[in-house]
Design a protein that fits this description.
The chain is mainly beta and 219 residues long. It is built from two helices and eleven strands, in the order ββββββββαβββα.
């Protein structure tokens, strides 16, 4: 659902690596782009929760996105004029592009990443997280929020035909603030991060606390 499509023999090493979230399984998957025999391939690595990341919510984008047949993002920063919705439809006449969000995040182990979703339920959770960010940003000038992703939650959605669908949504919250990592502003990152070990559970930080850069990014 959230996969980037690979182009045979094409590029791909210079774009921001992604973290996928599956609203069906609740898995967070880091996707690393590597070259094998001259071709760009994707290597997937499941991330173990809980996961603590810095999130670049000041530059978060919303708008229209499609993942078939190629990734196509028509986005704008939150608060800026929105792009026009594309007219493309699939073979069943349904719009290819759906409303969603895209935001950069990361820590010293994952490096700089990007996550996006066109799931309505996931989008609603991101709206709530963005509200937490807005509530705290005035008291934390020049800083970015630290987000703890502690797990996922099962939600049910009522369909027009009376049936229900079950999805997973992230359980996340802003737990601290950190000086803006240089990684968000173009500093180079390791091309392929090492495998992640399961992080040890950490006591929850107070909502408006500050943490040291080294707690999130060891650059």
């Amino acid at each position: 659902m959230f996969d980037y499509q690979s182009e045979s023999g094409g590029g791909g090493g210079d774009r921001t690596p992604i973290i996928k979230f599956s609203a069906q399984s609740g898995d967070f998957i880091a996707v690393n782009r590597v070259q094998v025999e001259g071709k760009w391939m994707s290597e997937e690595q499941e991330l173990t929760l809980p996961l603590r990341v810095a999130m670049d919510m000041a530059d978060m984008e919303v708008g229209y996105m499609a993942f078939q047949p190629m990734p196509d993002f028509r986005m704008a920063k939150v608060g800026e004029p929105m792009p026009q919705k594309p007219d493309e439809v699939d073979d069943q006449g349904k719009p290819l592009h759906k409303w969603g969000f895209r935001v950069r995040l990361g820590n010293s182990e994952t490096g700089l990443r990007e996550i996006s979703s066109a799931s309505k339920n996931v989008y609603e959770r991101m709206k709530a997280l963005f509200s937490e960010y807005e509530a705290g940003k005035a008291a934390n000038p020049g800083k970015v929020p630290v987000v703890d992703i502690v797990g996922t939650e099962r939600v049910q959605q009522q369909l027009n035909n009376g049936q229900t669908q079950t999805w997973r949504v992230p359980q996340w919250s802003v737990t601290a603030w950190v000086d803006r990592p240089a990684l968000f502003d173009g500093a180079p990152a390791a091309p392929t991060p090492p495998p992640l070990d399961a992080p040890a559970p950490a006591p929850a930080a107070p909502p408006a606390a500050n943490v040291q850069d080294d707690d999130i990014f060891k650059l």
